[in-house]
Each structure stands twice: as structure tokens, then as C-alpha cells.
User: Fold these one by one.
Assistant:
Number 1:
Amino acid sequence: MMATTHVGFLSFGSFLPLPSRISFSKRRPFAMAALSDDPIREWILSEGKATHITKICPVGGGCINLASRYDTDAGYFFVKTNRSVGPSMFEGEVLGLGAMYETRTIRVPRPFKVGALPTGGSYIIMEFIEFGSSRGNQSVLGKKLAEMHKAGKSSKGFGFDVDNTIGSTPQINKWTSDWIEFYAEHRLGYQLKLALDQYGDSTIYQRGQRLMKNLAPLFEGVNIEPCLLHGDLWSGNISSDKNSEPVILDPACYYGHNEAEFGMSWCAGFGGSFYNSYFEVMPKQPGFEKRRDLYMLYHYLNHYNLFGSGYRSSALSIIDDYLRMLKV
């Protein structure tokens, strides 16, 4: 989601021993923090293995959350807070980061703690990774992303253990056995209804509904497996560490068709070397080009609902193009 930003992290994994494998089988794998006067400080000085905090530095964060770096004698911690939203939003992020981390493929910030703030709102504590001077090698990014998609599978179907957010928009992740049904109802349908409720946009709603009911021809001959997706992969959520290894962050994870990962490619800067390396691991399937705009549509609709009419024409144009292609 383009309007948010994130700041780099410096790893301190050597300072804080964690289980070699984190279990995410339960809905709340991370215990909620007790409401002390300062639960962030309390956790860092106990489970975080620090004895004192030397500095707290604001490091950006964007339009949704505030972000800070906590400097301690046990290393650096990255903390995001939101004074108006409860822990459920950050719980979704923790589960997503943890699921990606478990694949042992591409680097992501390791999540440590999520909890409620005593004055309202919530926080998340995670690993701080110091970013390098560039976004890293596109070829390596494509390969590692494909390896994550290949490793991260689900036996439950398409969806995720919790609903989460795409930007600040709720993202419904109800487990569904059929991908076309999931994408139509919980991705396109949700956004179209939001546009109708928010703007009274019956044109985009009605045309979008027609498209939703006629998606099947776009998937003929395609083998679709539930793959773990980052879910919001644009340039602001991609970086590299000091060793030039790619890092992805601020996810909106769910298990879906791997091609849906490229829905934000219109502002991700993926080049030929990225796709070539990706398809060496996850081979391109028939009709890939015909489905690219379909997966972009979800994000254009979300940007329309979040930021206004500047994105409406792009979303409507995609819908109309598919209606003509499918002759419906």
C-alpha cells in the first residue's frame, strides 16, 4: 500500500535467543502484554534481555503508524505504535512476518511482541535490520520470493488464520477451498462494496460484479496452489540489508495464487531479471499475462477506497477491458 513507509532494521538476533522455529498454529501465538505503564519498555528490559535503554529515536513510519528505534545494551529494537487501533492489526502483521520467517527463504524482520497500550492503541516490537544503500539485486529478490512461495503452503485452502489489513483497509481472509471464489468474494467483492458504500459508486460496483461472476475462463488450464504471499509488495516494502540480501516488510499475508503477489507491480519496479529468476523456481503458467491486470485491480480498488477518485479511472478501465475480453 503506497502511502506507508518503513524504516530499516539492524539485526540483533545474536543478543536475543529465540526458539529455532516459531509455531504459528494457534490464533494468538504471541502472548498479549500485560497493561503496565510502559509495556514496551517492560518487555525490552525483561524478555528483550536489555538492562537499560540508552535512546529512543523516531524513524518515520508513514500515515498509519508511528515508528521508533529503541537503542539498548542488547542491541536495537524496532517498535511501531498506533494510538487509535487495537492489537488485532499488529497481530495480523506478527502472524504474517512469522509465517514468512518460518520458510527460511527471504529475509523479513523477526517479530517479538504485540500488545495493547495502557492509554489506548497498540504496539509491535520486532527486529531492527539496518538497510543497505540500495534495494538489492532484482534477480536475487525474484529467486528468494519464488522460494518463499514454493515453501509456504497451506493445507487449509486459500486465506489466513486471521483477517488483517491492506494499508488501513480490512482484508478478509476466511478460509476458502476455491481460489476463484476467494478472490472474487474476499478481494474484489469486498473492495467493490466498500466503493459503493463510501462513494455511492454503482457504476464500478455493477460492472465489477459482472466481472466477478465470469472469472473462470481466465484460469483455464492453470494449477493453483495456496502459496504464502507477502500481499502488499511494492517498492516501499522492499529493501536490502547491509549484505545486499533482499528484505521484505510490512506484509498483508495470506495464502493465495502466487501470481497475486504481483498485484502491486505497477509501483514495485520489477524488471526482467526479477521475473526471469522468479520463473526459474516457480514456472510461468498459461495465461499469466491475461491475469496480471486482474490482480492489479484489487490494489487499484483499495487505493480508490483509501485515497479517492484519482485511482477510479484505472480500476474502471481494467474492469471494462476484462468485460470486453470475456464478452460479458
Note: The chain has a mean pLDDT of 90.
Number 2:
Amino acid sequence: MASAAPSRVLNLAVIGVGLVGSELLRQLAQPSLASKFRLVFVSNSKQSVSSLTPQGNLNFSNWKQSLESSTAPPALEDLPTILGGFVGGDAVKNPLAVVDNTSSESVALLYPKFLRAGINVVTPNKKAFSSELSLYDDIVSSSASTGAKFLHEATVGAGLPIVQTLKDLVETGDQVKRIEGVFSGTLSYIFNEFSSPKGGSEFFSTVVRIAKEKGYTEPHPGDDLNGADVARKLTILSRIIPSLRNSLQSGYKSVSITSLVPEALRGPEVTGADFLQHLPDFDSHFHLLKEEAEKEGAVLRYVGVIDVPKGEIKAALEKYPKDHAFATSLGGSDNIIAFHTERYSPRPLIVQGAGAGAAVTAMGVLSDLLKLI
């Protein structure tokens, strides 16, 4: 009787071991998964450690200690060449994936080089897929030239199956008409608390301050309230839809964005502390918006919308009836995304759940890695 073929082992080069990167390595260390992967490189912003050399000894149990004791710099600009040498033109015999857990634009710019070297790229980093179209085109063509894949489920909704769901809809021939949803966990929490179907008495600035205290916001809350993160996610999704693929030449900057940051607080000199100190000056503005919504039997939600027939892509504060799913179904910092398609009509396909956090983001990255085995 013929013996079973040996299972495929995927080599991993992990860039970034902060909250998400460390959690990913913890999940990979599970006995049911560890045998499927081999760790060959790990780096943080200052150091790196590799098992590509004969004396290298790196695994899921010793990576942290090995990294802390290393004197080698990351030297990421050399990594495509080094890892390409490891693959040696045989990605079947030496399959390798770079996992970028950073939010670095400089690392994102290396993706085409990795892909041209036959190295797969898996990442929660939104930068490469939501910036200028020229970079995205380079990534796509580089992938096609070698067959190396780029997977980025965790760029939208962390571990929620949003990117893959949209890909499946498109690839099976469904016609996507509209995508709308609450894409920001931070803004979800803020408006769930500030504009509830049951009403609410908290000032907008108070809700934002509490959100920061709970760890839901960026160090500077304005980085959440300016809508740019939602716009990046809309860019990523729109580029999967054939008719919209080339519509955002400047990436997220081409999206119509309604910023919730008051004009007086938008300057680069405004620190996070300054922002929280002066935001109460604008509570009357936000109270008026909420009051207008309540008069219409509605709540406020900050949403992202992709209207395919109109070619409209926007991140904006909108009103929804108090019995709408966006008003009643959300709790905490949940994301909810509705796909309106030819097949899923009149009732949309809805994906909902935690859209932020290290554990679910790492799970999204891990699910992509498993697709490569």
C-alpha cells in the first residue's frame, strides 16, 4: 500500500510582533497547527532573528527569547533578496509566506518584490491595498508573474469573513449592487452609546473620552473620527469589484469622506490630549445632529457605502430607522456589513461580529495562512 504523501509545511517570515504579531505566534504554537508551519524569520522595529543560517534555531517556543538577545537589525529592504534565495525559484519545494503585522507603509512597498521572488504575502496591513492604484497594480501583476499569492482578509473586519465573502460573490458571477456597513469598531461603539434607539443623555465628547479609556480609540481619537480608516477599508473592497477596480486612483484619498473632527481641531499641532480637552466645545453640534435624527425616528451611524451602479464610494454619518439592523443589532464595538447583490435581494447577506482586537485579527491572518497549505 502506498504511503500517504507528507503534509506540506509552510515557512514563515514574520515582520512585527506587537499585539497582533505576538498573538498570531501564540495561535500558531497550538499543537494542532505548529506542525504545519516552520518559523524562519522574526523581526520587530529594532532587531531580527533568522533560522535561515546553518546555526539558526528558531521555533514557536523560543522566538521571543531569541529575538530579545539578537543584535541583528531588521534590514527589511534586503529581505526580499534573502528570502528569495531561500525559495530558490522552487516555491513548491520551499513554500514561504511573509506575514506583515505592521501598519508600515515602507513594508507595504516591499510587497511587489516579495511576490516577484515567489514569496506569498499575508497581512492585516491596509496600506498596500488602499493607497495609490499604481502600487496595487504592481502587487497584482507581481503576483501573476510568479503565482505567489497576496491574502489580506484581516484588513477589513479583522477575523470576519468580509474580503473572502466579496471575492466569492464576484468570482461566482453574482452582481454586487451595494455594500454598506459599520466598518469601524471605534465609531460603532461611539454611536451605539451616543445615539441609541432607547435614547441617551451622554455628551458626544464624554462618549469619545470613555471610548479612549476603554482602549477603543487610537492614541489621538481624531485618527478614528476623521473617517480615513473606513475609507481605506472601502478602497480595499471596491478594488475587488471589477467595475470599480480602477476608480480610486489615489486610494482612500479619492473616497468621499465626512470627517467628524471639528475644523478647529484638525491641525497637526493638536495633540490627542488637546483634542479631548477641546472636543466638549463642539458637543452642541453633535447634540443637534442626534436631535434631528430622533425627530425622524432614527439613529446616527458612521457607515461606509459602496454603490456600484452609481460608482459612489463614501464614508459618512447617516441616519437609520430605529428598527434597522444597524440600529438594533450592534453592541459594543461590533462591525456589521450588508452585501446587496442580485442573488441576495431583497434581503442582503449580512456579516456581523467583533471587528477589532488582537485575537480576532490574528485569527484572520491565520485563516489566510491555512489557505496556502
Note: DSSP finds 17 helices and twelve strands in the chain.
Number 3:
Amino acid sequence: MAGQSKPVQLGPWGKATAGAAGACFANVLVYPLDLIKTKLQVQVKKTVDVEKQEAAAGSEPHYKGTWDAITKIKDAEGVAGLYAGMSGALLGVTSSNFAYFYWYSIVRTLYFKYQQSDAHPSTAAELSLGAVAGALGQLFTIPIAVVTTRQQTQSKEDRKGMIETAREVVEGDDGITGLWRGMKASLVLVVNPAITYGAYERLKDIIFPGKNTLKPWEAFLLGALSKSIATIVTQPLIVAKVGLQSKPPAARNGKPFKSFVEVMEFIVKNEGAWSLFKGIGPQLLKGFLVQGILMMTKERVELMFILFMRFLSKLRSQQLGKAAALAAAAKVASPVIAK
């Protein structure tokens, strides 16, 4: 009892840091897939007219699929080409996940304070908390996503650093607001983590009924499957968001898209409805791996933080104990010195 120490609880900053570290680690491992899926999602389906326009514009080669894109990029730019724009992308992933887990922790704490109960939130409430956290996070991190998407879709000759790319966006037709292009699509896409969470809970009951603590491989499997379901459902919006944030295709003669609905209309008209799911292969594989690794590593990172905090607390207690002992010894010795 009295000697027992209270369990260390991570605050919003600790949970946010753990989530961001897990997401960064996972995305480093699969970054080439992120680059490939972005390139596949912004390219326009080949037609005779499109080929003429792209030839005149001197655009990048057309990719038939994931492996074709990997091969062509590697041949043209070397292995380094598969990691083009990675610094900006990792900054975006880290900041967006940090913001999400930070706001989720804040919103969840406020929810319990308002409810004045420790009862576990319902699935609907949990989904709503996740959506609110996702929306708040997007407000602060979408400029990084815009710059990263622009970097990933530039040719090797046109590729610039983050600051130069951001300046190019600001100097465009939309001005400073160009850094928030695709904001509506991003806010709509907060349903993606909501679907991921809902599917995770349902699959957990179906595949591992009655289990409260999951093994790492079980958490990986559930996280990967649930993210795959969410990706399939929201893929058209993901494609539209990428289209909004990248340079407009040659067929539009430099005219940028104004909304994600306009992007989808353009794709359906010029490429067919199935093209709303272009890049789905690497998108699914990336989500499968990233979410699985994230679910496996996040709790471990949080545990490391807790152990580190306990170590610091123990070290501080020892130092305070030594200081108290020295003070007591000095107090006892002081009358002797006075005589």
C-alpha cells in the first residue's frame, strides 16, 4: 500500500510521440510504395490525345503498374529515385500522427471529464473522438502533405527542396491558401481511421473472440486487415485528394482543380470509373504493412517511455533522499560546531 507507487501514465505529449515514432518507423520501411502509389494516382490513362499533350509537355514516362514504375524509376534515377521526397514525406507522416494522437488524447480526456465516468466509450463515441482528432490534426499538417505530394510527382529535373516547393505553391494561382488544397477531401477522409477502428473491433471479435490481450502478430493482422477495408472504401477520395494537391495533368493546360468532385469527374470522363481506384495495389500494400507495423510498435514505444519515466522518477527520488540525508547530517553536526 503506502509504499506502492502509482502506475505511470503517459500524457498527451508522450502518447503523441509514441504514435509518431511508430508511424515514422513503419513508413521508412515502405516509403517506395508510398512514392509509387502517388505517381500511379496522378497519372492520366494513356490515349492518343494524352500522349501528344504529354510529349509536347515533356512529361514523365507512363507506368503500367507497381513493378513497371519501380523498374523505370530505378533505371532513370537509380535506387535513390525510389526515395525522392522522403524527408518531406516523413516529416508529414510524423507530424500528422503526432497531431492525431495528441488531439485524440486531449479529446478523449475531455470526453471522460464531461461524462464523469470511467466507463469505456461506445463504438460510436470512439469513432466520433477519432474523427474529431483527425480533423484537428489535418488543420495543422495538411500544408506538409501538399508540399510532399508536389515533390513526389515532380520529375527529377524539376524536383526542388521543401522550401522551394512550398514557395512554388504559394506563388501559384491560389496563393497562400494553396498550401491547404484538398482540405475538404482531407476532412472527409477522417472517416478512414474511423472505419479502420470499427473494422478492427469487429474483426477482433470474429477472429480472436474473448481475447483482451493480443500477441504482436495478432495485432499486426487485425491492424493490416482493418486498414485494407478502410482503404478500399475511401480510395476514390484518396485519389481525388492526391490529384488536388499535385500539378494538374497536361490535358488541363495548367488549370488546377478546384474541388475533389471536379477531380473525380475529370477521371471518370477521361479514364473511366475504374480509374478512381488507380494505385490501389501499392496503396493497399502500404496500408497493410504500415498499419500492421504501427499497431505492433506503438505500444512498445509507449512502454519504453513509461520505463524511462520510471527510471527518471527513481533517480530523482534517490537524489532527494541523498539531499535529505545530507541536510539531516548537517543539522545534527551544527551544534557541535557551535561549541
Note: DSSP finds eleven helices and no strands in the chain.
